[in-house]
Design brief:
heterodimer, A: 255 residues, alpha/beta, Rossmann fold, 10 helices, 12 strands, B: 445 residues, eleven-stranded mixed sheet, ten-stranded mixed sheet, 36% strand, globular
Chain lengths: 255, 445
């Protein structure tokens, strides 16, 4: 088995002042797709933000290791350059910052870190065009400000486009399926599946089993009460769909 | 004696000497000059007990014994101005050095399509009967002591006359250059725009400096927009950070006319701008946008007044402030809707961005609505960069400083994009960018 890319050992974390994660253990290896499911308030987004380095989320106990190194000391931008990508649950609208300009700046920051030459405007444009096809993104949207006036589906597609361009080693998708109709879900998951590779790992966070029909995970974890209450194969997702989360939450509370 | 009183006496003494140099002039102009001097004598320099000057203390300006600006110690060369030019335009350029027209630095092109540009001083000497009666009529000396002072010292400036139906899309660039003399000097740049019915004009009024000249710029711009005419005015203040700059803009709009002002406050230790627009003819439209970027200990104060005197006029005003260091900003936006001005539409907004804890902003909308069938709105805010957007950019690999720079620029972008020509937005964007760095550095210190 390959060495761990990411390892969480007994991670406790707070969001704002509220304790949310209460001892999460997780090992992710290259090539694996992990699904993290759980009821609202179980800590799914906090887990995503622990990995991306959101300033309001703090690890208070335990270890987060990235190829054996402490991840918590890295700034959000250092994590991004190291190859950690968070697809936001609520992508931010940034009026006045052109999408293409922003993406080029982001890619060049990442490439510089990898020791690769920066792309000029023309090289970047042809790369972006190729990746836009992957998520069926209209080029007009790329000329606009970041996510400004985008529909819910367009925002999520833009997240996957960014992921396709930045080529992360670990992609964390935070409820990428929320707010998507079935066509948009198909496009977005098609984009995600095209990016699956033996070198790349993914953590797919979702409330519903539906997404996992399209993005089939290797492992399914259920987060409840700030801990991973159960882990299993993709059948676990179906079991959850049938039984709901109640039985697991009770179990987590009893511990 | 207070510094303000001493400064008044100093300016009055300067005026005594100045009067001796004046040529004969038409009686109406001599009268306006005298009225302005009287108004200044009566008011003196404004103190902070006046509501209009509550937040801006002019004592630092009053303490400097300015001389009247004369010829520069070293002549200004074309090369000195090159980096201020906008090479994207083949536009006509009219340059004034220390208030005085400099034909050797100016260049007219065929593209100004009938617009006549003249030096007021040349006209006063050679052909005073042809001086337009609108000169010094727009600003009210009793309400603006600095405008009164400027009119008392009225000497040279640019007269832009666009005949009926004439005019071009290409801007005309009027540059007021301050250049060092023997000591700190006061200069009174003046612009009079007469846009006759159906004409059009884009004017860039640009205040720059060479050789780090210290002093005080006290500018007055008067604009008459005839029926159905369209005037776009871009006002750029980019003098060094130790200069004082006060400006008064007075606009009169006739029926169905369109006017836009784009004000960029990008340099000076103390800037105070009063801009007032009188919507005097039905169906007139006015847009005012402003961007002020300040750092260090700069003070930038913008006062605007839009007077809806008649029905069915539209005004839209957006001023944005970006303040770093220990800079202070003031915005006061007054809108008057007169009793007869039904179907008025007036909007105003003043969002401000503070880049540090040392900066301060005072914003005050003031709507006086005396008609009932109107649409008026206003909004102002003072805040920091959006932390969500900041994190989003960083989560894609941009450094904190690059993210901050991008977001700050994005905040300014709306005002740049409102400029009458995209090429101008690009050219001015570089100037703005430089100021943003200055404001941010101050914020980190």
């Amino acid at each position: 088995m390959a060495d761990a890319m990411l390892e969480l050992r007994g991670v406790h974390a707070t969001a704002g002042d509220a304790p949310i994660l209460r001892g999460v253990d997780l090992v992710v290896r290259p090539g694996e797709v992990h699904a993290v499911m759980g009821p609202n308030g179980s800590g799914k987004s906090t887990l995503a933000n622990v990995l991306a380095g959101r300033p309001s989320v703090r690890v208070t106990q335990g270890e987060v290791l990235w190829y054996g190194r402490d991840l918590t000391t890295l700034s959000p931008e250092e994590r991004a350059r190291e190859g950690i990508f968070l697809a936001f649950q609520y992508p931010v609208e940034i009026p006045g910052v052109a999408n293409l300009y922003f993406l080029k700046a982001a890619l060049n920051a990442v490439r510089k870190h990898r020791g690769e030459p920066e792309l000029d405007a023309m090289e970047f444009l042809s790369l972006a065009r190729e990746k836009m096809k992957l998520v069926q993104m209209d080029e007009k949207l790329m000329q606009r400000s970041v996510n400004e006036g985008f529909s819910g589906g367009e925002k999520k597609r833009n997240e996957i486009l960014q992921m396709a361009i930045l080529e992360p080693r670990l992609a964390v998708l935070d409820e990428t399926d929320s707010g998507l109709d079935i066509d948009a879900l198909r496009v977005v998951s098609g984009g995600v599946n095209a990016l699956r590779s033996p070198e790349r790992a993914m953590i797919v966070i979702t409330h519903y089993q539906r997404l996992l029909d399209y993005i089939v995970p290797d492992v399914v974890h259920v987060l409840a009460g700030g801990r991973i209450a159960r882990s299993g194969g993709k059948d676990l997702a179906l079991e959850l769909e049938a039984k709901g989360y109640g039985w697991l939450e009770q179990g987590a509370g009893a511990r | 004696m207070s510094a303000l009183d001493a400064a008044r006496d100093h300016f009055l003494a300067l005026h005594g000497a100045f009067t001796a140099t004046l040529p004969r002039e038409p009686a109406w102009l001599a009268r306006r000059r005298t009225q302005a001097l009287d108004a200044f004598r009566e008011q003196g320099l404004p103190h902070t007990r006046l509501e209009e000057w509550r937040y801006t203390n002019v004592t630092p300006l009053a303490k400097v014994p300015f001389a009247l600006a004369g010829p520069p110690a070293r002549p200004v060369a074309r090369e000195d101005l090159e980096h201020h030019a906008f090479p994207v335009f083949a536009c006509s350029v009219y340059v004034f050095v220390n208030g005085r027209f400099a034909p050797e630095l100016s260049a007219a092109t065929q593209l100004q399509c009938g617009t006549r540009v003249a030096s007021l001083a040349a006209l006063r000497r050679s052909d005073p009967q042809r001086l337009p009666a609108q000169l010094a009529r727009g600003v009210e000396p009793k309400r603006h002591p600095f405008a009164a002072l400027a009119t008392a010292f009225l000497d040279d400036g640019a007269l832009l006359h666009v005949p009926r139906g004439a005019g071009a899309e290409q801007p005309i660039h009027v540059v007021f250059v301050s250049a060092p003399g023997p000591g700190p000097a006061v200069v009174h740049p003046r612009v009079l725009v007469l846009a006759e019915p159906g004409s059009r004009l884009t004017l860039i009024q640009d205040h720059v400096s060479v050789g780090n000249a210290s002093g005080f710029t006290n500018a007055v711009t008067e604009v008459e927009v005839g029926a159905g005419a369209a005037v776009d005015l871009v006002l750029i203040q980019r003098e060094p950070d130790h200069r004082f700059h006060v400006s008064n803009l007075a606009v009169n709009q006739e029926r169905g006319s369109r006017f836009s002002a784009h004000s960029f406050c990008l340099g000076g230790s103390l800037l105070r701008n009063d801009a007032s627009v009188l919507l005097a003819g039905e169906g007139a439209e006015c847009r005012m946008s402003g961007l002020f970027v300040a750092g260090g200990r700069q003070v930038v104060d913008n006062h605007t007044l839009v007077d809806h005197a008649v029905p069915r006029c539209t005004s839209q005003e957006t001023y944005k402030g970006i303040l770093g260091g220990e800079a202070r900003g003031v915005f006061r936006g007054r809108i008057i809707v007169r009793p007869d001005a039904q179907k008025t539409s007036a909007r105003q907004s003043n969002p401000n961005l503070l880049l540090g804890t040392g900066a301060e902003m005072d914003t005050k909308p003031q709507l006086e609505i005396h008609a009932d069938d109107v649409k008026c709105s206003h909004g102002s805010s003072v805040g920091q960069l959006d932390p969500e957007a900041f994190f989003y950019l960083r989560s894609r690999g941009l450094s904190a400083s690059a993210a901050r720079e991008l977001l700050t620029r994005a905040f300014a972008e709306e005002i740049l994009r409102a400029l009458p020509a995209p090429a101008l937005a690009d050219a001015l964007g570089d100037v703005v960018q430089g100021r943003l760095s200055f404001a941010r550095e101050g914020a980190l210190a």
